[in-house]
Amino acid sequence: MVPERVEQAKAAVRSVREIAPLALVIGGAVFLLLADAIALPVLGGWYALLAATYAVRWGVIDHARRSLERDPERVLRLAVVMATISGLAWAVVPWLVVSRGDLDLRGLATIMVLFSLAASVVTVNTAYAPVTIFFATPCTLSLVAALFTLGDPDVWILDVAILTYGAVLVRSALVGERRYVEHFRLALAQEAASRSLSVAAGELERSNERLVHLVDHDPLTGLLNRSGFANDLDDRIARAALRGGKVALLLIDLDNFKAVNDSQGHPAGDTALAETAARILALVPAGASVSRTGGDEFAVALGDDEAGTVADGLAQRLIHHMAEPFSVAGQPVVLGCSVGIAVYPDHGGDRQSLVSHADMALYSAKDAGKGRPCHFDIDMLSRRHAQRVVEHDLPTAMDRHEVEVHFQPQVSLVDGRLVGVEALVRWHHPLMGWIDPPAIVDAARRVYSAARLTAYVLEASVAVRGLLAAHGWRDIRVAVNVSPRDLPFFPLPELVAEIAGDAVGRVDGIEIEITEDAMIDLDLCGPKLAALRLMGVKIAVDDFGTGFSSLAYMSRLEVDRIKIDRQFVHDLDGDGHNRSLVQAVVGLGRSLGCEVLAEGVETAAMAARLAELGCDSGQGWYFGRAMRADELDRWLADFAAAAPRRSRA
Description:
Elements: H1 3-34, H2 40-64, H3 72-98, H4 105-124, H5 129-148, H6 153-216, H7 226-243, E1 247-254, H8 257-264, H9 266-283, E2 289-294, E3 297-303, H10 307-322, E4 326-328, E5 331-333, E6 337-344, H11 351-367, E7 373-375, H12 379-399, E8 403-412, E9 418-429, E10 433-434, H13 437-446, H14 450-470, E11 477-481, H15 492-500, H16 504-507, E12 510-515, H17 522-535, E13 538-544, H18 551-556, E14 561-564, H19 576-592, E15 595-599, H20 604-612, E16 617-619, H21 629-642
Parallel strand pairs: 6-7, 9-11, 11-12, 12-13, 13-14, 14-15, 15-16
Antiparallel strand pairs: 1-3, 1-6, 2-3, 4-5, 8-9, 8-16, 9-10
Helix pairs in contact: 1-2, 1-3, 1-4, 2-3, 3-4, 3-5, 4-5, 4-6, 5-6, 8-9, 9-10, 12-13, 13-14, 14-15, 15-17
């Protein structure tokens, strides 16, 4: 359907409504002009005919307009037909004028009226020229013919003028239609352009809103990002400062996210992050701000006079709900989280200090065993300072061999023979004194020296094997601890092969100790541990019972030895729970075909009790403390002298 045809049909319908009253008025004027000259019945009959034609024209067009949108061509055809009928009715008037045989003043006036009518028709019917042409043509031709019959040459001049005027009317009608159509098309184009501009402006506005949103929000979770959260936290602190209120900041770190992300892929990790965001949003009170500050870290800001109390309860709920499993790619996943809490103004007077102190509290929560909240306290500042000093000085200390490797004996509880030694790092800092071994390991990780520290210990362990062999202990294992956090990120099998040598006879004297936490990352750690076993390296699980114990994981991971943590070894006679646990671990070791070693053996009675419970070997001060290689040399001599008949491998 052509849009301009519809518009022309609408204009034709409108013109009928506009011209009909005007035509009847003009017809009345003709009636009055000719009333004295024409018999009233004739003149009255003509006027009745005129009125009837316009009435019919009105009715037909009014009925036809109902199908205007569907069939505009039909409406236009009817408009032309009805205009022609109206033109024929007016064509009677010239013959009435000349019926008296001459052209007087009244006749001229009547002709002027007809000219006015024709002009008005052109003015009203600019949309569709045929309506004008088919109306004016009968009137014009009738007038020319009627005047011509008078036989007066002067009147013929008027005929020429009328024909010229008629030609002008036709041309005006055609030009008017063309301009109307062009104007309509231009209007359509302008309207379309306006709509396009409006749509484009709307899209631009929405895009701008999205961009503004993305500036301050995380695209994955929809939460505030680090920048947006920083602005929000600044605003909260400013408002709290004005009214003497408080702001609580909770930093949330997912405990096992990396295992999910690395083992199941980034899409699974994204799903886990989105689920975490949804759980946090469901728990925080109204008015709280929630952010994903990066990676698997989230933050919550609470502005309230009771912010500290509210933060404690919220942290507990977060830890509880995050420990509930959810499904990722059809697999159940348990993440867990740790929470660090700092409160303005108690723990910091601005955003930077508040975030820094909440971060310290978060690290303390994770170091304390994960899955717990921790409030900032002033002692953390000194601990953080000490931590930074350790991190800064550790690489240099290894260069200077100030970091020492000590060795603690492991003795059979069955026959008293030496079965192994464990390599343990020790460092006496010139200003801070003895550094706790876990702090050394954590510092090495933070300064990206974990692999170097492991190599450092392995080199010392290989060297002490020569010392053991010199004393006749050639089949003794040297145990080296490897952090489960570091195991997936450096090539341990290659490191062992490079340092201990490719020969199986040398490598099989090395034992790698991992904690139970490594079992959570079994998909990442398992291949490396399997490669070590193929090389002849032994695998032990350290601190068993304190971490993520799972029979399913233990069955998948072939281990040679289970080490019972010292906290379960003490007070075996007084604590029935500890005794039952030791018996259970011994039974598990038997079923898995691996040895069971008890740590923290301090007395002969304790060693005897552990032997009764079925432990294979023990390690602790009763047998010997951790010592340097030269001290171990003397200990081995004393140990051999004290039991000359002890069997040697």
